[in-house]
Amino acid sequence: MTTSSFASRKDYLDSIEKGLREGLTAMDIDDKASAVPRRYKAFFEDSSHRRVVLWKAPMKECCLLEATSDSIRCSFRLKKQDELETIIVREFLTTQQQLWKDYRMLQKIPLEGHDVSFFITNRQVRDYGLEEVVASIVAFVTSVEKEKSDMKIGVNARARQAARGIFGN
């Protein structure tokens, strides 16, 4: 669903959080307990096998959650109303890739048609914990909107000040 189809931004974030929790809890997190030898690549990364997507939860143009038995991919298409927001989002995502490098959840190349994709494996859920993984992705979505708004306000203020200097108002 789009952000506008929810009563508020909080409802949208709650639905993302709920979808992530459902997908992550459905995963086989303890790969030591399974009788099948552990694979070195998750289903989404392994091109030699046909993908078995357990469920997809598209939320129109904003968020797509795809889950398999050992991983979940969460892709976002961020709202960009003008060229300035497009540039701000691109630069912000470049910065975020550096910050998320240690987590290894943020994919360098997002799913086609989306701006950013997270790829979460059962190992990451086991290492970081379900709560931390869900909270960090929800915090990421929240920070994108906040940063985009703050940067746009700052750019517009500087442009207004420059225009006053040029036109002497």
From TrEMBL:
<dbReference type="InterPro" id="IPR034666">
    <property type="entry name" value="ARPC2/4"/>
</dbReference>
<dbReference type="GO" id="GO:0005885">
    <property type="term" value="C:Arp2/3 protein complex"/>
</dbReference>
<protein>
    <submittedName>
        <fullName>Actin-related protein 2/3 complex subunit 4</fullName>
    </submittedName>
</protein>
<keyword id="KW-0009">Actin-binding</keyword>
<dbReference type="GO" id="GO:0051015">
    <property type="term" value="F:actin filament binding"/>
</dbReference>
<dbReference type="GO" id="GO:0030041">
    <property type="term" value="P:actin filament polymerization"/>
</dbReference>
<dbReference type="GO" id="GO:0034314">
    <property type="term" value="P:Arp2/3 complex-mediated actin nucleation"/>
</dbReference>
<keyword id="KW-0963">Cytoplasm</keyword>
<keyword id="KW-0206">Cytoskeleton</keyword>
<comment type="similarity">
    <text>Belongs to the ARPC4 family.</text>
</comment>
<dbReference type="Pfam" id="PF05856">
    <property type="entry name" value="ARPC4"/>
</dbReference>
<dbReference type="InterPro" id="IPR008384">
    <property type="entry name" value="ARPC4"/>
</dbReference>
